[in-house]
Amino acid sequence: MSDPTSWLLVKRGWKVLASDGRQLGSVRAVKGDPGRDIFDGLEVSVSKHRGEQYVPAEFVQSIEVGTVVLTIKPVEFATLEPQIKPHARRRFRW
After folding, report:
1. What is the pLDDT of residues 4-32, one digit of tens each?
2. Contact between 8 and 68 (Cβ < 8 Å)
3. Considering only CA atoms, which of 49, 51, 60 is closest in space to residue 83?
4. What's the burial of 87, exposed, middle or buried (CB within 10 Å: 0-12/13-18/19+)?
5. Given its phi and psi angles, is residue 41 left (phi above 0), alpha (psi -120 to 50 degrees) or beta?
6. pTM of this structure
7. 3-state DSSP call for residue 25?
8. Residues 55, 85: Cα–Cα separation, whole Å
9. φ, ψ (nearest 5 deg) of residue 34
10. Which residue of 17, 18, 59, 91 has the lowest C-beta tally within 10 Å?
11. More confidently predicted of 75 and 81
């Protein structure tokens, strides 16, 4: 087991694992605002048939070099809506 790392270091192609250790796919893209250190989630390449799957940040359990582990099991991952994009962040002025 390696040391935890920041979401800012996650690279395309890193393995994405379910909470039980099974591989679900690989990172296609990281979504967030690096300037404000806001992590929205990941786009995960799943298969040729399913395409990409958006995984919200709240389902990320840990990040280690080369691997992202989710808090959900494969059956829960399969029930997520395919490629749901996070809402655009809005700036509010008070």
Report:
1. 889 999 999 999 999 999 999 999 999 99
2. no
3. 51
4. exposed
5. left
6. 0.82
7. strand
8. 9
9. -60, -35
10. 91
11. 75
**Which tokens belong to 35?**
């300037």
- Spell out the domains of the chain, with CATH numbers in brackets: 7-78 (2.30.30.240)
As a whole number of Å, the CA-based R_g of the chain is: 13
Task: Please name the residue that has the structure tokens 């008070």.
Answer: 94
Q: How far is the C-alpha of 83 from the C-alpha of 87, rounded, in Å?
A: 12
The residue to which tokens 């890193």 are assigned: 14
Q: Which residues pair with 51 in a beta bridge?
A: 47
Query: Phi, psi at residue 75, to the nearest 5°?
Result: -65, -35
Asked if 4 contacts 64 with a C-beta cutoff of 8 angstroms, the reply is yes
Please name the residues in contact with 87: beta carbons below 8 A apart, sequence gap of 6 or more. none
Rounded-to-integer distance, Cα 68 and Cα 55, Å: 11
